[in-house]
Amino acid sequence: MVNWKADLNSLIEETMAFAKSVRVEPSMPRTVVEPNWMESEREDIRRRVANFKAHQQRFIREREDYAASEWNRMLGSQR
Q1: Using alpha carbons only, how large is the chain's radius of gyration in Å?
Q2: How far apart are CA 58 and CA 52, in angstroms?
Q3: Which of 2, 5, 18, 73 has a 20 to 30 A CA-CA distance from 55?
Q4: What pTM was computed for the model?
Q5: What is the DSSP string of 8-73?
Q6: Is 29 exposed, middle or buried (0-12, 13-18, 19+ CB in 10 A)?
Q7: 3-class SS shares of the chain: helix, strand, coil, % to 5
Q8: CA distance 47 to 54
Q9: Cα(39)–Cα(47) distance, rounded to whole angstroms?
Q10: What is the mean pLDDT of the chain?
């Protein structure tokens, strides 16, 4: 029983020594990347929101114009 414990301890020591001796260098140096996409993304969102608002305003004007024309048509048919 003592033999396997000695083998295990020896293996653990060898593994720890090997792990300490291994040195891994990064393949590329680490650099800080500037988030230059943020401005273009924000501008794209602003443009899309502006287009959506313009589209909604056009729908509102068309709906109001239609309602006004129908109202005038109904009033004209009563006279």
Answers
A1: 38
A2: 10
A3: 73
A4: 0.45
A5: HHHHHHHHHHHHHH-----SS---PPP-THHHHHHHHHHHHHHHHHHHHHHHHHHHHHHHHHHHHH
A6: exposed
A7: 80, 0, 20
A8: 11
A9: 12
A10: 88
Cα dihedral across residues 40, 41, 42, 47: positive or negative: positive
- Alpha-carbon distance of 16 to 10, in angstroms, equals 10
- Cα atoms found within 13 Å of the Cα of residue 10, Cβ hemisphere only: 6
Q: List, for residues 40-69, the tens digit of each pLDDT value.
A: 888 999 999 999 999 999 999 999 999 999
Q: How far is CA 4 from the centre of its chain?
A: 55
